[in-house]
């Protein structure tokens, strides 16, 4: 996918679903299909945590999920793993502060792929942009139980601080976001929200995703 411009990316980031097999109570492909039916706008394959798949099985699940995304026009992003992103010819990659540096990722992938970078402070956001990030993931906004090594909770003030500094790059809030607390994240200046448990762990996944779509379209800019 790409060449997409910033405004297209802003739209794609509206409801950014992240998941791997450790987040799913039912088959990951079924979870993704149900989330797609609810209108998610972007997907990140994040295969980590207890019991995470490795090697060929991991690749195979990635390929399966990528096919679902492709069939539905949803960009497929790989978390952390540049080799997997290249092997799958993913639409992009998301890296954090402890992963392969964004600058190296950009050099490896070129301009045609989406590169997302996590930032937990204004300084990290500025560096990520200088390194070639297309979008930022800002968090944790609220407490989360989906990431063992999550940083300290930042609240929505980190997003306001980044926007007030004049940064206009597309960005999502992440960490503990539910349909009930998403509105302040958007009001702070996020283009979208990024979610694991409130969609993957929902009783009705399609309904949960649809709820986020409605929330973002009602409260987003
Ligand atoms: C959209 C988005 N934002 C932030 C993250 C977190 O990335 P990172 O800090 O590298 O942590 P892990 O997800 O790799 O555990 C993300 N994955 N996506
Ligand atoms: C993957 C991830 N990154 C975070 C960050 O702060 O960078 S918080 C997080 C977990 C998000 O899961 P949930 O929606 O279940 O809280
Ligand atoms: Mg990472």
From TrEMBL:
Q: Name one Pfam family in it.
A: TMP-TENI
Summarize where Mg(2+) binds, as residue positions.
80, 99
EC code(s) of this entry = 2.5.1.3
What region holds the Thiamine phosphate synthase/TenI domain? 15-199
**Which InterPro entries does the UniProt record give?**
Aldolase_TIM (IPR013785), ThiamineP_synth_sf (IPR036206), ThiamineP_synth_TenI (IPR022998), TMP_synthase (IPR034291)
Pathway given for this chain reads: Cofactor biosynthesis; thiamine diphosphate biosynthesis; thiamine phosphate from 4-amino-2-methyl-5-diphosphomethylpyrimidine and 4-methyl-5-(2-phosphoethyl)-thiazole: step 1/1
UniProt keyword Magnesium present: yes
Q: What class of enzyme is it?
A: transferase
Q: Which cofactor does it need?
A: Mg(2+)
Q: Which reaction does it catalyse?
A: 4-methyl-5-(2-phosphooxyethyl)-thiazole + 4-amino-2-methyl-5-(diphosphooxymethyl)pyrimidine + H(+) = thiamine phosphate + diphosphate; 2-[(2R,5Z)-2-carboxy-4-methylthiazol-5(2H)-ylidene]ethyl phosphate + 4-amino-2-methyl-5-(diphosphooxymethyl)pyrimidine + 2 H(+) = thiamine phosphate + CO2 + diphosphate; 2-(2-carboxy-4-methylthiazol-5-yl)ethyl phosphate + 4-amino-2-methyl-5-(diphosphooxymethyl)pyrimidine + 2 H(+) = thiamine phosphate + CO2 + diphosphate
Q: Where does 4-amino-2-methyl-5-(diphosphooxymethyl)pyrimidine bind?
A: 44-48, 79, 118, 147
Q: Name one GO biological process term.
A: thiamine biosynthetic process
Does the UniProt entry include the keyword Metal-binding? yes
Which keywords describe this protein according to UniProt? Answer: Magnesium, Metal-binding, Thiamine biosynthesis, Transferase
Give any Gene Ontology cellular component. cytoplasm
As to how many cofactors bind and how, the note says: Binds 1 Mg(2+) ion per subunit.
Q: What does this protein do?
A: Condenses 4-methyl-5-(beta-hydroxyethyl)thiazole monophosphate (THZ-P) and 2-methyl-4-amino-5-hydroxymethyl pyrimidine pyrophosphate (HMP-PP) to form thiamine monophosphate (TMP).
Instruction: Please give the family membership noted in the entry.
Output: Belongs to the thiamine-phosphate synthase family.
Return the protein name.
Answer: Thiamine-phosphate synthase
- Organism of derivation: Paenibacillus etheri
């Amino acid at each position: 996918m790409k060449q997409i411009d910033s405004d297209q990316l802003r739209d794609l980031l509206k409801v950014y679903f992240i998941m791997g097999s450790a987040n799913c109570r039912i088959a990951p492909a079924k979870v993704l299909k149900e989330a797609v039916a609810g209108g998610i706008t972007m997907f990140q394959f994040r295969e980590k945590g207890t019991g995470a798949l490795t090697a060929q099985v991991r690749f195979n699940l990635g390929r399966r999920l990528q096919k679902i995304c492709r069939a539905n026009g949803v960009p497929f992003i790989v978390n952390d793993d540049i080799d997997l992103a290249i092997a799958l010819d993913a639409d992009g990659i998301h890296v954090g502060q402890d992963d392969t540096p964004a600058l190296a990722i950009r050099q490896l992938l070129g301009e045609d792929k989406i590169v997302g970078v996590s930032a937990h402070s204004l300084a990290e956001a500025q560096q990520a942009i200088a390194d070639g990030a297309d979008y930022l993931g800002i968090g944790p906004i609220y407490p989360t139980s989906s990431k063992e090594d999550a940083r300290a909770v930042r609240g929505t003030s980190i997003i306001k601080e980044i926007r007030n500094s004049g940064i206009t790059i597309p960005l999502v809030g992440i960490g503990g976001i539910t349909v009930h607390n998403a509105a302040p994240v958007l009001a702070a200046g996020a283009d979208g929200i990024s979610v694991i448990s409130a969609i993957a762990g929902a009783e009705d996944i399609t309904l949960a995703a649809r709820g986020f779509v409605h929330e973002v379209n009602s409260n987003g800019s």
